[in-house]
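One-letter codes give the sequence; the fold follows as tokens. An example follows:
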Amino acid sequence: MKIAVTYDNGTIFQHFGKTEYFKVYEIENGQVISSEVIGSNGTGHGALAGLLAGQGIDVLICGGIGGGAQNALSNAGIELCSGASGEADQAVEAYLKGELMSSGVTCDHHGEGHSCGSHGGSHSCGDHEDGHSCGSHGEGHSCEGGCGGGCGAAPQITGRNVGKTCRTHYRGTFNDGTQFDSSYDRGEPLEFVCGAGMMIRGFDAAVADMEVGQIVDVHLMPEEAYGEADPNAVFTIDIAALPGSEELEVGQQVYLSSASGQPFPVKVTAKEDGTITFDANHEMAGKELNFRIELIDVR
């Protein structure tokens, strides 16, 4: 089984017809065994459906999508889950658990009849949305956090590898030495187009002028990584206002729906006195990160 996600900088790109990249996940026994990012070659709605069919895609997870594209995907036998937002990897995990709903488009065996305890897909953020846009949180990267080149006033990334497909091994650690991620442990290098906004800015900038075989150590401040945490992305609501939330536990990650019906990931940070608090910030927001990066190949 293969799942494709419209992809931008680690998150779900919101316009199917304009997506430049898809992240494709190979699934076996309900688990992701490999993934890769592929280019769309700038094709339009119908051609994109053909591209996905040619890749053997069974399911597409995306944000917004038009009726023509929906029909093209249906004709190609590709199941569609639209209206999704947030981290691409988390959305795929939610889909595999039966916790990702499709907003406005049929996704028959996912998201029907579940309560907030599963994903919150049938509930709206409601009144707590005042003061912030729920749908815009949890997407992983802000301009200040480094969306690659061309984001706000951030200087363009330059270097010999910009625009080229790079394969790297890396190990990521916090300042106390705790490892949070490692491609070495997975046994599979990370592949991305340098400078295309597929990676956090600091990682992109580090790889931009490396030579194949070179290993570098970089220390990234939050503005070069996932940005600072947004206090407006933390909100508290009455448990009674969100049926199913009484079963949630602190530390659990779930999906809620914005007023427009788009699911977005949140983490339960507190639960007391009949209220529950959610944090829609990226889990790495506000953190300094360290990477050891080894450039394996450039093409």
About this structure: The chain has five helices and 15 strands. The radius of gyration is 19 Å. The helical segments are 45-54, 67-75, 88-96, 183-186, 201-207.
